[in-house]
Fold this sequence. Notes:
The protein is built from 1 helix and 2 strands, in the order E-E-H. It has one helix at 51-62, and strands at 28-30, 37-41. A hairpin with a 6-residue loop joins strand 1 and strand 2.
Amino acid sequence: xxxxxxxxxxxxxxxxxxxxxxxxxxxxxxxxxxxxxxxxxxxxxxxxxxxxxxxxxxxxxxxxx
Length: 65
C-alpha cells in the first residue's frame, strides 16, 4: 500500500448558513400563525402568512369543500 497523504485529509468546513430574510432588507411583517418573518413589509395590510403557513392554509381551504 502506498503512502498517499491526501487519503485522510479532513474536508473543508461547511459554508456558514445563509442569512434569513429577516437579516436583510426592510423590516418584515410577522406571520399571524407562527410569528416567523414573512416576505411582506410591516406596512402590509391584512393577515400576513409566511410561505409555509400560506401553503398549509391553502391546503386546508381547498379540502374544506
